């Protein structure tokens, strides 16, 4: 997670906790019996509802969604435009070098299809299939968390009923009443907090990361299709920038000197006159 997000989350948690502190004794909001009822009930219903493999997968998705730094769409556009220029200068087969170096799995697979001479239709079909099932897996992970969020308030209500039963059974005993009332009230509190402050935000996080990844994958598919069809890099730049917000479209990405420096392209003397003409590689300087 980004530093700003962590700082904002900590600040909001402190403000939220301050409301409990100001209202009185903080210890009255902690009840082990109520917590065990709610937490155990939620965990049990999750295990009963989903396979353990699915729950483990959800935990991995959550860990990666907070630990992995998301690439910006503008950075992907820049990479694809660079690759387009490089392929026109040195040929599609040279993209195998970038296939090994890129840290983006989806882009690496796409470049592998290009280097292996897959047709444009085959490449598009495979990548669209991969993107579809990627979305399906993420949607299932989000659904797991939303189901648990729906369950938590009901489990909290069940804990409250347990507390009320205990209170009524000892109505003539003040000690029993005082011991069971906190269970009845804090169980509902724990159920609401787990649902609205844990599981729903986690589900929203998965949705946010999934939408971002799908956008990057769509940009990559369009970029790879254009590279295979040898589209003019300047036209490709304009096309891919349509995926970006207006504020991210400023400036031009195509620069022959920068491309050569990035990919360490050395001109041979006999090729220098041909490479020096921007119009031959589709680059307007």
TrEMBL record:
<feature type="domain" description="MotA/TolQ/ExbB proton channel">
    <location>
        <begin position="106"/>
        <end position="211"/>
    </location>
</feature>
<dbReference type="GO" id="GO:0006935">
    <property type="term" value="P:chemotaxis"/>
</dbReference>
<keyword id="KW-0472">Membrane</keyword>
<dbReference type="GO" id="GO:0071978">
    <property type="term" value="P:bacterial-type flagellum-dependent swarming motility"/>
</dbReference>
<dbReference type="InterPro" id="IPR002898">
    <property type="entry name" value="MotA_ExbB_proton_chnl"/>
</dbReference>
<dbReference type="InterPro" id="IPR047055">
    <property type="entry name" value="MotA-like"/>
</dbReference>
<comment type="similarity">
    <text>Belongs to the exbB/tolQ family.</text>
</comment>
<keyword id="KW-1133">Transmembrane helix</keyword>
<keyword id="KW-0653">Protein transport</keyword>
<keyword id="KW-1003">Cell membrane</keyword>
<dbReference type="GO" id="GO:0005886">
    <property type="term" value="C:plasma membrane"/>
</dbReference>
<keyword id="KW-0813">Transport</keyword>
<feature type="transmembrane region" description="Helical">
    <location>
        <begin position="147"/>
        <end position="170"/>
    </location>
</feature>
<dbReference type="Pfam" id="PF01618">
    <property type="entry name" value="MotA_ExbB"/>
</dbReference>
<keyword id="KW-0812">Transmembrane</keyword>
<protein>
    <submittedName>
        <fullName>MotA/TolQ/ExbB proton channel</fullName>
    </submittedName>
</protein>
<dbReference type="GO" id="GO:0015031">
    <property type="term" value="P:protein transport"/>
</dbReference>
<feature type="transmembrane region" description="Helical">
    <location>
        <begin position="33"/>
        <end position="50"/>
    </location>
</feature>
<feature type="transmembrane region" description="Helical">
    <location>
        <begin position="176"/>
        <end position="199"/>
    </location>
</feature>
